[in-house]
Amino acid sequence: MKLYFMLARRRPDVPSQLVLEVCEILRQRGVKVACGIAEETLLRPDRPFPKVDLYLLKSYTELSLSLAGVLHRQGARLLNPYPGCYAARNKIIASQVLAAAAIPAPRCWVTSDFTLLGNLLNEAPIIVKPYMGWRGEGVHVVRNQAELATLPFPQSPVLVQEYLPGSGEDLRLYIAGEEVFAVAKPFSGDSFARPGRPVPVTTELRRIGLSCGAAFGLGLYGVDLIETESGPKVIDVNYFPGFKGVKGASEVVADYVQRCAEGVCDLPGIVVATEASPARVS
User: Fold this and answer.
1) How does DSSP assign the chain, residue by residue?
2) Strand-pair partners of 64
3) Residues 134 and 57 reside in one and the same domain
């Protein structure tokens, strides 16, 4: 069995601990594992890529995502499938997927004319974020007209979300197939790099987490939420997260990856629900 991890170029150049441990577990089980970084490889997208049992997209760069699209067109097996990865990565599309699946999330808008946002600020603060951003880069909280006037002209499309006051902590779900884990950590600019502490997975959190997987067609993913007075709201969905703070995560992920590579578990397809057809939850 052969697997190929499509990794991100990291700054600083420190490899993902999860990937290191998962690869070692799989190699000990006799699986052949190779890794590569798209930005450091010369490839021809007009030629077939090497055949392996499973490609694993563990990078959020536009080049990696484009190559995943090439693999998808070539009929390669990816974990997670390309359509779901792209839908989750593109926050504009993701907002529609969440709404169609009746998954609780903040209201959102799109525009390239910030002067049109004035009426929104009369109701509540807003958050402006790049449509393909990650790790909080380029995110602006705007509370009034003066702050709106200081926003730089967007170099790419942006998503505008209503600002929802929360508990001051990040809540993240990590999902591998049917297994759902939750961690919480104080909100900060670098909280994405902190492990957090395990917290109980309530029935509601499990329902939301699995609904996201069904809606986007993902099997190995993370869900960022904020706890509000009206319940948890989904802020973001990420494919193949680092599972920071989850005890035994490497074994859980390695088991899921191996099952998918062996064809024991079906790789999800896109399942977008409507009000008449709610999201499928296993």
Assistant:
1) -EEEEEEPP-SS----HHHHHHHHHHHHTT-EEEEEEGGG----TTSPPPP-SEEEEE--SHHHHHHHHHHHHTT--EES-HHHHHHHHSHHHHHHHHHHTT-----EE--S-GGGGHHHHTTS-EEEEETT--TTTT-EEE-SHHHHHTPPPPSS-EEEEE-----SEEEEEEEETTEEEEEEEE--TTGGGS--EE----HHHHHHHHHHHHHHT-SEEEEEEEEETTEEEEEEEEES---TT-TTHHHHHHHHHHHHHTTSSPPP------SSSPPP--
2) none
3) no
Q: Is 267 within the bounds of a domain?
A: no
> Which of 32, 26, 34 lies closest to 253 in space, CA to CA?
26
Distance, CA of 148 to CA of 115 (rounded, Å): 8
> Quick one: 128 and 177 in the same domain?
no
Domain ranges, residue 67: 2-89
Put residue 168 in one of left, alpha, beta given phi > 0 → left and psi -120 to 50 → alpha. Answer: left
Domain with residue 181: its CATH number is 3.30.470.20
Q: 168 versus 266: which is more confidently predicted? A: 168
**pLDDT band at residue 12, thresholds of 50, 70 and 90?**
low
Number of domains in the chain: 3
- pLDDT band for position 161 (50/70/90)? very high
Instruction: Read off the tokens for 234.
Output: 């989904």
- Same domain, yes or no: 176 and 243: yes
Closest CA to 237 of 173, 158, 168: 173
